[in-house]
TrEMBL record, chains A, B:
Keywords: Oxidoreductase
EC number: 1.5.1.7
A Pfam family: Sacchrp_dh_NADP
Record InterPro entries: NAD(P)-bd_dom_sf, Sacchrp_dh-like_C, Sacchrp_dh_NADP-bd
Protein name: Saccharopine dehydrogenase (NAD+, L-lysine-forming)
Residues covered by the Saccharopine dehydrogenase NADP binding domain: 4-138
Natural source organism: Neolewinella antarctica
Length: 405, 405
C-alpha cells in the first residue's frame, strides 16, 4: 500500500483524486497540494462525502518554489508525485523530486512560459539524473499525451510488425452551453492551438499554418466532424520510439464558432503571451483572458455529448497490409456525475491515476525518464477500462480515415 | 483675440489644435493639457513644424483633480476650456471651470465610469450654476453630437415649420487595414454600441436589443451600407428642443466582421466594465482591451475611404409635406494629410474648434448650459464648411430613406 502527492487542484486533479480514493487497496492515503489550499480542501471534503474516504491531507504549495516543495516532499514522503498542475511547473517539480528522492508522473510536457514551444527536450535532459538517483519519471500520462501512446504501443505489440502511418484523432462532440469556453486551462489551450501545425513525414517535421489542413473525419457514435491537423507533443516521442513510422499526424475537432472566437481573440491581441503595460502593471493578455473566461471546472454541470479519442494506424503484419483503429468514447455527463468534472478532465485524470497505479504496483518500473509507450501497455489498458475509460478496437478501418495508398 | 485651453491629447485634440493654429486671428495662443504631457508636446511640435505657429504651451494635468485643474486655469486664464478628453471627466472639468470662472465646451456628454448610461441629466443639472456665474457651457460640439444638431436647427430655421421625423445617419465607409480597431477610444465606443438601442417615438423612448433594427441605407458617394439603430446622446436634447418631432432615430453603419468581433469580445467577457481580480490587481476588462487594441490615433496613416454623416428629415413647410437631407462627407486620407489624424477624429475636432470660434467671436453667447441646436446655426455652418467640412443639402429625399407614411 502506498501514498502519493497530487500537485494541482483543477479538474484533472479532482478526477485523479476521486479515482485514487476509489482504490484504497493501492492508494492508502494521499495529499493534494496546490497554491490555493481551499481548492484542495474542497476536493478532499467532496471525496469524504461521496466516497467515505478520509485519508486525504492538503497543503498550500507554490510548485515553482523548489526549496519549499522539497521540504513538503521530505515531510510527507510520498511514493510518487502526480503533477497535475501547469506544464510550466514540470521542471521545478522534477528538481524537487530529485532533491527528495521521489518518483514523478505528469500529464503534459514542459513548456517555458515565454515561448509556446512544445518539446520533450527539456524533460528528456533529466534522463541521467533520474537514472543515477534510481527514480522513475513518467511523462505525459493523460489521454493525449498518454493513452494515445499506450494505444500505439498496444497496436505495435499485438497487431503490427511495422507501423507506417499513425493518425491520432481527437473529437470533442460535447456542448457546454456557453458562448465560448475552453475545456482545459484556456491559457495552455490557446497557446497550443494558435501555434503553427506540424506533422512527421519521411523522417522530418512538416510545418503548416494553424488550421490549414482540414478534413471531415468520421468518429464512432459521433459522426463526421471537421478536424484539423495540429502539433501535439506525443508525436515527438512516438516517432522516436517507433522509427518505422513514415507519417504521424494529430487531428482535433473544432467548430466554426470556436474558430471564429479564436480568430477574434488573436486579432484583438488577447492571445499574446508577452506582457503589456496597463496602468503601471505588466499584464500578459492571455493570462488575463484566462481570468475572464469561464473556469473549465465550471463547465461540467450542463455538459452534454461525448469525447472520442483514438489512433488510426496502417502498417504491415506478417507481410500483409494491416489497418487498425483503437479508441475510447467518454460521456461528459457520466464523468460529471461520478467526479464533478467534465469529460476532458476525466479522460486526463483517469489515465494519470492508472499510470500511478502501474508504478505503485510495479507493472511499470525502471530508473530514468520514460514516455508511456516505453512500458507494457497490457496491464495499463486493462485497468483503464475498469476505471471508467473502456476502449474498443477494430482491424480494418473504413474509408473515412482516408489514408494514402 | 483670445486664448483657450485644450484638455486632452488624442486624435480629436490634435485636430482641434491644428485647426486653432490655422486661425491665429481668433486663437492668439492656446495651451494643451493632458495627463501625459509628452503627447501634448508632440502635437505642439508638429504644429510649429507644419504651420509655423509657436504660441502653444503644454501642461500635465489630471482632469479629475478639481483643485489642480482649478489652479492651472487660474494660472493660464483661458477664455474657454475645450474639453476633448474622456466623457468621464466632464463634471470635474465643469467644476473647475466654475471655480475659476471660465466658460466650457465639450464633445460628448458625461457618463459615469461604472455604468454605460448616456444622458444629459448630469450636465443639465449645472444650468443654474453656469447661469449664476455668467458663464457659458456648450455641450456636445463634435459631429454627432454636435453638427447633427446644428443641421437639425438649420433645417428647422430654413426648411420646416414642423419637423416630424428625424433620422441621423452615420456611415464610416473607410478601411484602416487592421483586423479590428475602433475609430475612437475603444472603451467609449464599445460601451456605447453594446448598450440596448433606443429611439424616440410618440413622446416616449422605445428600447430595443443592440443591433436588432437593421436597414441597408444609401449614402451619397458611398452607396448602400448596412445600418443599425442605436441610441446616441443628441437624440435626447433634440426631442426636447424640437417638441414637434414624432420619431427620432440614430443609425450607424457596421460591417459584419466588426459585429463578429464585437460579439466575441462580449462573449469572452472583454466588454465588461466591472473590475475583476487578476493576480491581486483589480482590472476592468474593457479598459484592458483598450490597452491591447490599436490606438485609434495610429489608424490614420493607411486609412482610405470616407465618412458620411447627416440628417434626413420629414415634416411640414407652408402646410405641405417636406423632405430634406443635409450631410457632410469627409475623406480619411485628406484629414490625415492635413492634421495627422483620421476622419473620425477630424469630423469631431473641426466642429469643436468651430464652436469655440463661435463663442470667442460672440456669435454664440449666453449664460448657462447649452446644447448646440439652441444657438444660431448659420454662422457655425458657414465656418464649418470653410474649415474643412463642407456640407450639402437637398430638398426631396429618395426612397432609400424609407420614411413611414
Amino acid at each position: 500500500m502506498s501514498k502519493v502527492m497530487i500537485i494541482g487542484a483543477g479538474g484533472v486533479a479532482r478526477v485523479a483524486a476521486f479515482k485514487c480514493a476509489e482504490h484504497p487497496e493501492v492508494f492508502e492515503s494521499f495529499m493534494i497540494a496546490s497554491r490555493t489550499v481551499s481548492k484542495c480542501d474542497r476536493i478532499a471534503a467532496d471525496i469524504e462525502k461521496e466516497l467515505g474516504y478520509a485519508n486525504v491531507t492538503t497543503a498550500a504549495i507554490d510548485a515553482e518554489d523548489v526549496p519549499a516543495l522539497t521540504a513538503l516532499l521530505n515531510e510527507y514522503r510520498p511514493d510518487l508525485v502526480m503533477h497535475l498542475a501547469l506544464p510550466y511547473q514540470d521542471l521545478t517539480i522534477m528538481d524537487a523530486c530529485l532533491n527528495a528522492g521521489i518518483s514523478y508522473l505528469d500529464t503534459a510536457n514542459y513548456e517555458p512560459k515565454e515561448e509556446a514551444k512544445f518539446e520533450y527536450g527539456h524533460q528528456w535532459a533529466y534522463q541521467q539524473k533520474f537514472k543515477d538517483a534510481g527514480l522513475t519519471a513518467i511523462l505525459g500520462c493523460g489521454f493525449d499525451p498518454g493513452v494515445t501512446q499506450v494505444f500505439t504501443a498496444y497496436a505495435a505489440k499485438h497487431h503490427f510488425d511495422e507501423i507506417h502511418y499513425l493518425d491520432i484523432v481527437d473529437a470533442n462532440a460535447g456542448d457546454h452551453g456557453k458562448a465560448f469556453a475552453t475545456n482545459f486551462n484556456p491559457e495552455i489551450n490557446i497557446r497550443e492551438i494558435t501555434q503553427n501545425g506540424k506533422y512527421w513525414e519521411n523522417g522530418e517535421w512538416v510545418e503548416i499554418p494553424p488550421f490549414s489542413i482540414r478534413k471531415d473525419l468520421n468518429y464512432p457514435d459521433v459522426g463526421p466532424k471537421a478536424s484539423y491537423v495540429l502539433f501535439h507533443e506525443e508525436l515527438e516521442s512516438l516517432v522516436k520510439n517507433f522509427p518505422t513510422i513514415k507519417r504521424a499526424r494529430f487531428w482535433m475537432t473544432f467548430g466554426d464558432e470556436y474558430l471564429t472566437h479564436l480568430r477574434v481573440i488573436e486579432n484583438i491581441g488577447m492571445a499574446g503571451i508577452q506582457p503589456v503595460m496597463h496602468k503601471g502593471v505588466e499584464i500578459i493578455p492571455l493570462e488575463f483572458l484566462k481570468t475572464v473566461l469561464p473556469d473549465p471546472g465550471s463547465l461540467g454541470e450542463n455538459y452534454v455529448g461525448q469525447t472520442s479519442i483514438g489512433c488510426r494506424i496502417k502498417g504491415i503484419k506478417d507481410g500483409k497490409d494491416q489497418t487498425y483503429y483503437i479508441w475510447n468514447n467518454c460521456q461528459h455527463a457520466q464523468a460529471y456525475k461520478e467526479t464533478g468534472a467534465q469529460g476532458v478532465s476525466y479522460t486526463t485524470g483517469v489515465p494519470a491515476m492508472t499510470g500511478a497505479m502501474m508504478f505503485l504496483t510495479g507493472e511499470w518500473a525502471g530508473a530514468g525518464v520514460f514516455n508511456v509507450e516505453e512500458f507494457n501497455p497490457d496491464p495499463f489498458l486493462k485497468k483503464l477500462a475498469e476505471h471508467g475509460l473502456p476502449w474498443r478496437e477494430k482491424l480494418g478501418v473504413d474509408t473515412e480515415m482516408e489514408y494514402p495508398d
